[in-house]
Amino acid sequence: MSQESVELVRQLLAAFNRGDVDAVVAAFDEECVLEEPREMPDRPAEGFRGHEGIREWMANLRAMGEVSFEPRVLTPSRDRLFMELDSRGRGQASGVPFEWTTYGVVRASAGKITRVQVFLGRDDALRAAGLEA
Questions:
Q1: CA atoms within a 13 Å half-sphere pointing along the CA-CB vector of 17
Q2: Which domains are present in the chain?
Q3: Best exposed site among 4, 9, 65, 117 by fewest CB in 10 Å?
Q4: How many CB atoms lie within 10 A of CB 123?
Q5: Beta strands in 10-133, from DSSP E residues, in sequence order
Q6: Closest to 66 (Cα-Cα) out of 99, 92, 103
Q7: DSSP helix/strand/coil, 88
Q8: Cα-Cα-Cα-Cα dihedral of 132, 39, 32, 80, to 10°?
Q9: Are strands 80-90 and 97-109 parallel, antiparallel or unpaired?
Q10: What are the distances in angstroms from CA 29 to CA 13, 51, 52, 101, 110?
C-alpha cells in the first residue's frame, strides 16, 4: 500500500472523530466490506456492506458514546495496511470513559477503501496484513 493510502486512512479517522458521516462514507468504495472481530456478539455475520453498512457501523459506534480513534501505527504491507489505533469513548448513560486498542487491516483501490478487517489481537491483525506476528 502506498503513502497515499496511509493518508486516506488518516483522513477517514479524522472525519470519524469529528462525526462527519458523509466524509467517512466517501472514503469507502460503494462495494466495501467492514468486518468486526468474530468475538463481537452484535456484529453482522456478513460484515457491514456498502455505504449503508458504513453508516450503520458508524451509528453503532456513536451510540456507545463519544468513540474516537487515534492512529498509533500505520504500516503499509504489499496491498494492505496494518493499523493499531488508540480507541476511546465515554458511556452515554454513565459518562465513564473507556479505552481499548483496535487493530485492523485495510485494503484500498483507486483512492477508496474496499475492505477493513478489525481484530481484537495484534498478532491476528499482523498475520492478516502479511506481516510477521
A1: 14
A2: 3-128 (3.10.450.50)
A3: 4
A4: 12
A5: 28-35, 48-49, 68-77, 80-90, 97-109, 112-119
A6: 92
A7: strand
A8: -10
A9: antiparallel
A10: 16, 8, 11, 25, 9
**Mind listing the pLDDT tens digit for each residue in 21-52?**
999 999 999 999 999 988 877 778 889 999 99
pLDDT of residue 34: 97
- Cell numbers describing residue 6: 496511509
How far apart, in Å, do the first and last CA atoms of the chain sit?
19
Nearest-CA neighbor of 104 among 86, 88, 81, 87?
81
The residues near 60 (Cβ < 8 Å, ≥ 6 apart) are 42
> Quick check: 53 and 29 in contact, CB under 8 A?
no
Q: Which three cell numbers stand for residue 30?
A: 460503494
